[in-house]
Design a protein that fits this description.
Elements (H helix, E strand, L loop, with lengths): L2 H25 L16 E6 L13 H15 L6 E6 L3 H13 L6 E10 L3 E4 L2 E4 H9 L5 E8 L27 E8 L9 E2 L4 E2 H13 L7 E3 H20 L6 E8 L4 E4 L5 E5 L5 E7 L5 E6 L6 E5 L2 E9 L2 E9 L4 E4 L5 E2 L2 H7 L8 E11 L5 E13 L2 E15 L3 E18 L5 E19 H7 L6 E22 L2 E15 L9 E16 L1
Length: 540
């Protein structure tokens, strides 16, 4: 057998082994946990928010925002495969029916269609932009969509939260599903409250109470067994219990979400998978802990969860910075966390700093957890005559709420030519800073005014003498001056991870100097400059 034939046989054997290993991986369950594809592919999601009801109904404040939050969580977590999400804000009834007709005309391929509505409604219809859309017509249009499972979620509420929102449903019941996996066919309807009850919006939540707890539950707060999947049973029981408790505490009037199920199938009906999430936050095991999660810089709750005694609670969240408020009995603590895209972070008990309940509740995500920062900056400065130089600096800032105080040190090297002289300047600055900041989940903005004291060492060489010297040492004049003046810095910081951010800013400054001229006088001179700086910020 020739060497070439032996090589070909060896390659065929290796290909056979590789194929067997690949098949074995799939047959023997080689998928990562939670990554098994959903039957029939990704889900279709239609989300509708309507602040405007009928002409005699007071506009809602947060229905469209509720729709956006729901669209975000369903688009990210409603299946191992990406879900197709369409969001309609304050649409007429015809637009809703048109969107459902588009779904019905699409080729088959989805295992489920989810329709969510937040707005006004009555016993038999939802209200959109001065029109009514009967629920029977909505169900009829949804029935034409070629998907085995249809899920309708309706949060129809009134602004004050003290009137009946209608939308009667069958009495609530406990959903008990078998433990084996399976497929479903049929209809699920999840309504925000029972007949004759009030549905409530909350100023603190900036949304409906029911939608807040439904979204929190779908993000992982409802995952009782810690398998990183939220089933229909888990989501309903979580939303029902928490909505009932919050509505009674808020107004004294009970709001009890209700569920109507008409299904064929077996096993857990999974609504969201946490493993495909872009980022995950893991909260400590603590049976009595209550967690409030805010985006950094926002006072509106992003999610709410309760600790489990038997393990950590996982919340699927967008990437960015968050502030977590933990209530454990009479103790209140806050922690800041940065969630990387596609990664996760864990908050342990020791991470939380003690604060008062009043401060944690009032400030939310605007509370200062990391109050100090040290920035190392480098950049370019220039004057009106287009002379450019390099700058290096450091500054220390201390935050108190949205106000900033600090000090900065910097050194600048600048060279150039004037009409008669070649000059080089070294500048040493000390500055007092004060200003304001606006923090956010992905970017923080700041504006700083400064008062700078500058020591400048200037070296001048006569250009004609330097040319005559032909490269030799030409006589020079050195002088040292002291100046002061105001400046302004505008910038932004972008978090890279907890305690670390990238900073970029522009600055403008005008300083007053007394410069001695050839005539022997010392007039006051105004030196103006612009700068661009970037660097790294360490927060602590």
């Amino acid at each position: 057998m020739t060497a070439a034939r032996r090589a070909r046989r060896w390659r065929r054997r290796m290909a056979t082994v590789a194929a067997a290993l690949l098949v074995g991986t799939f047959v023997l369950g080689g998928y990562p946990r939670g990554a098994r594809a959903a039957p029939g592919g990704g889900r279709q999601v239609l989300v509708i928010g309507s602040n405007q009801g009928l002409s005699d109904e007071e506009p809602l404040q947060h229905a469209v925002e509720d729709a956006r939050r729901t669209a975000a969580v369903l688009g990210e977590l409603a299946g191992p495969e990406p879900s197709a999400v369409r969001l309609l804000a304050d649409p007429p009834a015809a637009a809703v029916l048109g969107a459902l007709a588009s779904l019905a005309a699409a080729p088959a391929g989805s295992d489920a269609v989810i329709v969510y509505f937040s707005g006004h409604g009555d016993q038999d219809a939802i209200h959109l932009a001065g029109q009514t859309l009967p629920l029977a017509q909505l169900r009829q249009a949804l029935a034409a969509v070629n998907a085995p499972l249809k899920i309708i979620i309706i949060d129809a509420c009134r602004t004050a939260g003290a009137q009946s929102k209608g939308l009667a449903a069958v009495p609530s019941f406990t959903v008990a599903l078998p433990g084996a996996a399976g497929q479903y066919r049929g209809l699920v309807m999840l309504l925000a409250s029972g007949p004759g009850e009030a549905a409530q919006e909350s100023a603190r939540l900036r949304g409906g109470v029911f939608t807040h707890f439904l979204v929190s539950g779908l993000r992982g707060a409802a995952d009782r067994d810690g398998d990183r999947r939220v089933t229909l049973s888990e989501a309903y029981e979580f939303a029902h219990g928490r909505t009932l408790a919050r509505s009674v505490a808020q107004t004294g009037a009970a709001q009890r979400p209700e569920l109507k199920v008409d299904l064929e199938g077996s096993g857990p009906l999974v609504l969201t998978w946490l493993d495909p999430a872009r980022s995950r936050l893991r909260l400590q095991a603590a049976a009595d802990a209550h967690f409030y999660v805010y985006e950094k810089g926002s006072s509106a709750l992003t999610a709410e969860a309760w600790g489990r005694a038997d393990g950590e609670t996982t919340l699927a969240l967008p990437s960015g910075r968050f502030v977590v408020h933990r209530q454990l009995g009479a103790s209140h603590g806050v922690a800041e966390v940065s969630l990387p895209f596609g990664g996760e972070a864990r908050l342990a008990r020791s991470t939380f700093a003690e604060v008062s309940a009043e401060e944690a509740t009032a400030r939310g995500g605007r509370i200062d957890v990391l109050r100090s920062s040290l920035s190392l900056l480098g950049g370019v400065v220039g004057d009106p005559d287009r002379h450019l130089g390099a700058a290096l600096g450091a500054r220390l800032l201390r935050a108190r709420r949205d106000l900033l105080l600090g000090v900065a040190l910097a050194t600048t090297s600048l060279t150039g030519d004037t009409t008669y002289n070649h000059f080089s300047a070294r500048r040493f600055d000390v500055a007092a800073l004060f200003g304001a900041q606006r923090t956010g989940s992905h970017v923080s903005l700041h504006a700083l005014a400064d008062l700078t004291l500058r020591l400048e060492r200037l070296r001048l060489r006569d250009r004609s003498t330097a040319i005559a010297a032909r490269g030799g040492d030409a006589p020079s004049l050195e002088q040292q001056t002291l100046g002061t003046g105001p400046g302004l810095r505008l910038g932004a910081s972008f978090p890279l991870r907890l305690h670390l951010a990238m900073v970029a800013e522009v600055s403008a400054r005008a300083l007053l100097f007394r410069e001695r001229n050839a005539a022997g006088s010392a007039p006051i001179v105004i030196a103006r400059e612009l700068g661009i700086d970037t660097g790294i910020c360490f927060e602590f």
